[in-house]
Amino acid sequence: MDELNRKSIDEVKSAEKIPVVVVLDNIRSMHNVGSVFRTADAFLLQSIYLCGYTAQPPHRDIQKTALGATETVDWKYFKTGSEAVQSLRKEGYTIAGVEQVENSISLPDFKSNQYERLAVIFGNEVSGISNEILPLCDCFIEIPQSGMKHSLNISVAAGIVLWEIVRMRI
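Request: output the structure for the sequence above.
Response:
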């Protein structure tokens, strides 16, 4: 483990974070929630905002995939996604939704480093980002896909999008 240069919980908590907040809007799968915690830990992201009926730690089904990341990633709960977005806007964050909509920006063309602070919203596994949040987004990111389904599991989509955002900042 020493050869992997892993940080301790205290080192992760005190490390400088990348100013990216992940917003999870009504995510039904606790495994997806745990996976996003793990990704946020891996990339030292600022925090995660859990909204609506998205489950909150501590919960054993979140822990199954988070593997302790709920201890290292700051998180907040908001009753609605719009409350979370309003809070982020007050703190100077640009709001980017990950959604297939008209005028969305293809992920390879999205220049995340142009935004000092960025909030990235991932919506419900079936219905996507809620209608109350869509008009509050400053922009939308779309992952290019060529297959029949044109959709990805949220934990996979989060890993892809967040890596691309972090890659441009390191």
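The two ends are 24 Å apart (CA to CA).
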